[in-house]
Write a structure and sequence with these properties.
Distance between the termini: 28 Å
Shape: globular
Structural class: mainly alpha
Helix content: over 70%
Number of helices: 14
Oligomer: single chain
Length: 390
């Protein structure tokens, strides 16, 4: 039996899954630490939101470095350098989390490291023959591992507080870095003076695609940041809420591969449009739920839509140029949406209440739907994105 074409890129699948899992490590930490910083370190909601958002801010800043590092360093060298910075940042945060002057720069540096590694692997994935499926697979694995990381972070924080959470993060970062160092980059992708990048072309379409992706992650991430708070307000305990959310995230990993398949088969626009609507409605109902059952039922479409759309957005960014530059730049920017989500959600809750997050999410998804129009391929000529039916 012939294996799917994506398994011709086994080394890239492992490296990509490890890089993407570094970002989902931050996502796994965010809802638990957001609540714990308020309880243990006596941060305000806005300060706690900023603390958990800094890694994603760093991931966004990484997009400014990518063109420079691509021309000078191979992926393996990037892994050694930025993997070490990430591990050091988490260790520093474990022992100085109560000092914002230490915590925030450390988390910013850790985020920059992850952004560089994600961008580097995304650039390679975008130039393969099956980017949709590979993006779907690595995102699926990252989300699959995230469910276990949520459980691990919850246990570590429950036993040892914020220090335990960051020590757990340092250990996981070490493991992922070790997996990435095993990848041998193809000679055609290695940084050489003769292999210079083409000028990056700006235009309405790439800007609309990247903006749509960032806004989608931001809008859906606001509810994700406060789902533990909503669960606790409905009478659930940390253990029960963590178990349910962990299992849901685990199962929702399958939606990543489904999203990659749908993108390759039907093009990105119709799957994206459907998921925007489903995600907005799911989060609105979950955030405004008046019972634990309704909350848990509504979380299913909300979280599944988030996982479904992410690989589609990455593949769409990869279609913007031939050498993967937009995919490399857009990947950390899309992930940075979780930063703006935490910051925005904290400000909204401080000024209004948690229920307002549902309305804000619906507004964000409506704007995403509008951005689908300028995100179309010019004159519908991209046959990979818009398959011709015979």
């Amino acid at each position: 039996m012939k294996l799917p074409r994506i398994f011709q890129h086994t080394g890239l699948l492992v490296a990509g899954a490890a890089a993407y899992s570094m970002s989902t490590l931050f996502s796994a930490m965010k809802p638990i630490l957001l609540t714990r910083f308020v309880e243990q370190a006596e941060f305000t909601q806005s300060q706690a939101g900023l603390a958990v958002a800094m890694p994603f801010v760093g991931i966004a800043f990484a997009s400014l470095l990518l063109r420079y590092v691509f021309g000078h360093l191979t992926l393996r060298k990037l892994v050694w350098i930025f993997g070490a910075i990430l591990i050091a940042a988490e260790l520093l945060s474990a022992f100085y989390f109560q000092y914002r002057s230490w915590l925030l720069p450390a988390q910013l540096a850790g985020g920059i490291s992850v952004g560089v590694l994600m961008g580097a692997t995304s650039r390679i994935i975008a130039t393969t023959s099956v980017p949709d499926e590979i993006f779907g697979f690595v995102d699926m694995m990252a989300v699959f591992l995230m469910s276990f990381m949520i459980a691990g972070i919850g246990l570590s924080v429950g036993l040892y507080g914020l220090q335990g959470g960051y020590l757990f993060a340092a250990a996981i970062a070490t493991l992922f870095t070790a997996f990435m160092t095993r990848y041998q980059e193809p000679s055609s992708k290695k940084a050489t003076k003769e292999n210079r990048l083409a000028p990056l072309k700006l235009g309405v379409r790439p800007i609309a695609v990247v903006l749509m992706g960032v806004l989608f992650v931001t809008s859906s991430g606001m509810g994700f940041a406060y789902m533990f708070t909503v669960a606790l307000n409905l009478g659930m305990q940390y253990a029960s809420a963590g178990s349910f959310i962990g299992i849901l995230v685990l199962v929702s990993a399958l939606a990543c591969q489904l999203g990659g398949w749908c993108s390759g088969r039907f093009g990105p626009l119709r799957p994206l449009a459907g998921a925007f609507v489903t995600c907005g409605l799911g989060w609105y109902v979950a955030i405004n739920a008046n019972s634990q059952l309704l909350f848990m039922v509504a979380l299913v479409p909300a979280i599944f839509s988030l996982q479904f759309n992410f690989p589609i957005l990455l593949a769409l960014c990869g279609s913007l140029d031939s050498d993967g530059q937009w995919a490399a730049i857009a990947t950390p920017l899309l992930v940075s949406g979780f930063a703006w989500a935490a910051i925005s959600a904290g400000a909204i809750v401080d000024h209004w209440n948690v229920a307002t997050l549902g309305t804000a999410t619906v507004i964000g998804m409506t704007i995403c739907l509008a951005l689908l129009f300028p995100s179309r391929a010019p004159a519908f000529t991209d046959t990979r994105l818009f398959p011709v039916r015979k």
